[in-house]
Write a structure and sequence with these properties.
single chain; Gyrase A, domain 2; four-stranded antiparallel sheet; 4 strands; 37% helix
């Protein structure tokens, strides 16, 4: 898996620019191919499960990791699915933190 998963999220400093297209493309190659980028501002992945309980358990595991990293995704939970969206609101786009957390989510998903 990605070396990104071993990194920690870091607070963005004022004036930190969002990643450009080349940086996004390079980092995306380190993630599961299920991730997509919307408008260069949001990183998305849909996870599928055989039931609601397993989708919920995965959401809880992601929430605990996100809290520890102090970088919080939007989680959309339903029967048999969990949709994850990452962005760095403070800079209005994607930062390295989004890819670090995505790599950690990939590890969680792979273990299920």
């Amino acid at each position: 898996m990605s070396g990104l998963a071993a990194e920690r999220c870091r607070a963005c400093r004022p004036g930190t620019p969002p990643l450009d297209v080349a940086e996004i493309d390079a980092l995306r190659r380190e993630l599961d191919p299920g991730w997509s980028v919307g408008e260069g501002r949001v990183l998305r992945r849909s996870l599928r499960f055989p039931d609601f309980a397993r989708a919920t358990a995965c959401a809880v595991e992601i929430a605990l990791v996100a809290q520890a990293e102090d970088h919080h995704p939007d989680l959309h939970l339903g029967w048999g699915h969990l949709d994850v969206e990452l962005t760095t609101h403070a800079i209005g786009g994607l930062s390295r933190n989004d890819f670090v957390l995505a790599a950690k989510i990939d590890r969680i998903a792979a273990a299920r």
